Structures are given as C-alpha cells and as structure tokens.
C-alpha cells in the first residue's frame, strides 16, 4: 500500500488548487469531495434515499443532486445534517479506504476537508495542512460558492478550529495571499514536499 499523506484545510483554504499541483507531478489523488459525488451520482441507491427523505426539491432538472441546495438545508438544521452524515459518511469512508488500499504508488495524496473531524488521521502516515486566516476563508468561500454568509459561517463552525487543525500538521502550506501573487512560492513548496514524501515512502517500504 502507498504511503498516505492526508491533505486538509478549512473551507476556502485552497486544498483543491494545491492538490492539482501534486497531480501535475504525477501523484495520485484520492479526493473525498469526488468520492462524495460518486456515491450519490444519478441512479445510485444513496441518492434515492436522499430524495425519499428531502423530496424532489433537492434534484436539478437533470435529476442529479443539487449540492448547493442540500448544503443550505443541512447546515441550517442540525438534525437534518446528522441524518445525512449518518447516511453518507460510512459509504464515503469505505470507498476512500478501498481506493487507498488498491494504490501501489510510492505515495498518495488523500484530500479530506474533515480529516481531523472524522478521525481519519489514524490512516495517514503524514498530515499536510493548508492554512489560511478565518477572514480569508470566509471571503474566498463567499466568492466561490453560491451560499449565503450564514451558511458559510455554519460550515466553518462545524470544522475544527485553525489551532486544532495546525496541531495535527506534520507539514504546513500557508495560503493567505492571492494565488496569482504567490503561485511560484506555493509550487516550490509542493515540489519540496513531493521529494520529501518520496523519500519517506521509500524509507517506510524498505
């Protein structure tokens, strides 16, 4: 099995952007958000259960899950959020672990927003945290998503604090500056980490 690097950070921290830089170096990525979409894709049993619970209102015209609408419902209603988590988390977790176990590369980047919250660090050899200030998280998430400020604040409140997240970090990439301004610096850090992870993976698999 590959050496597992858990990549995490709060909403709006730039996890996906930084994960892409690892992909460009030929690294395999297992992304919790992608797996989460796969398990509720059109025609899946889990999507049928969600529609049965929330009604057709949470579907798009193409009969796919309207994630923005669902998120707005659950992050403003703790009971509904709990119901959805109990349905989806076991399926997402199992699928991610299957993909991790099937990977035989030197190392794999496992992108999980709730890596710490869902006690998944135990499966990681190392944890990489993408760190940003809370006010930057909020402004980026508002600019990117179609959610309102209350929903974004509720999502942030449901995640661990910045301090707690950093306490789990073996490696940190600070991503407060706009990417256009800081791209070469971030890219350099990713390359350095890539070389470090290859060395650590070889050491582990000796």
Automatic annotation (TrEMBL):
Q: Which residues bind ATP?
A: 12-17
GO CC, alphabetical = cytoplasm
Q: What is its EC number?
A: 2.7.1.24
Give the Gene Ontology MF terms in alphabetical order. ATP binding; dephospho-CoA kinase activity
Q: Name one GO biological process term.
A: coenzyme A biosynthetic process
Q: Which Pfam family, any one of them, does this sequence belong to?
A: CoaE
Alphabetized UniProt keyword annotations: ATP-binding, Coenzyme A biosynthesis, Cytoplasm, Kinase, Nucleotide-binding, Transferase
Q: Which InterPro entries match?
A: Depp_CoAkinase (IPR001977), P-loop_NTPase (IPR027417)
- Which reaction(s) does the protein catalyse, per the Swiss-Prot or TrEMBL entry? 3'-dephospho-CoA + ATP = ADP + CoA + H(+)
What pathway is this protein said to act in by its record?
A: Cofactor biosynthesis; coenzyme A biosynthesis; CoA from (R)-pantothenate: step 5/5
Q: Where in the cell is it found?
A: Cytoplasm
Source organism's superkingdom?
Bacteria
EC class, as a word, reads transferase
Family as reported in the entry's similarity comment: Belongs to the CoaE family.
HAMAP family for this protein: Dephospho_CoA_kinase (MF_00376)
Q: What does this protein do?
A: Catalyzes the phosphorylation of the 3'-hydroxyl group of dephosphocoenzyme A to form coenzyme A.
Protein name per the record = Dephospho-CoA kinase
Organism the protein comes from: Haemophilus paracuniculus
């Amino acid at each position: 099995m590959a050496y597992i690097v858990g990549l995490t950070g709060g909403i709006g921290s730039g996890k996906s952007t930084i994960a892409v830089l690892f992909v460009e170096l030929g690294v395999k990525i297992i992304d919790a958000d992608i797996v989460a979409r796969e398990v509720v894709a059109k025609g899946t049993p889990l999507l049928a259960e969600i529609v049965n619970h929330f009604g057709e209102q949470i579907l798009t015209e193409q009969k796919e899950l309207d994630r923005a609408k669902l998120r707005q419902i659950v992050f403003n209603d703790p009971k509904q959020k709990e119901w959805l988590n109990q349905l989806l988390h076991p399926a997402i977790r199992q699928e991610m672990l299957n993909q991790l176990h099937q990977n035989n590369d030197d190392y794999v980047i496992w992108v999980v927003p709730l890596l710490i919250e869902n006690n998944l660090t135990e499966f990681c050899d190392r944890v990489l945290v993408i760190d940003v200030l809370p006010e930057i998280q909020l402004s980026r998430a508002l600019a990117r998503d179609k959610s309102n400020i209350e929903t974004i604040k509720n999502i942030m409140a449901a995640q661990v604090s910045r301090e707690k997240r950093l306490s789990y970090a073996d490696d940190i990439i600070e991503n407060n500056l706009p990417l256009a301004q800081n791209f070469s610096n971030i890219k350099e850090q990713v390359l350095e980490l890539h070389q470090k992870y290859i060395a650590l993976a070889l050491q582990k698999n000796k």
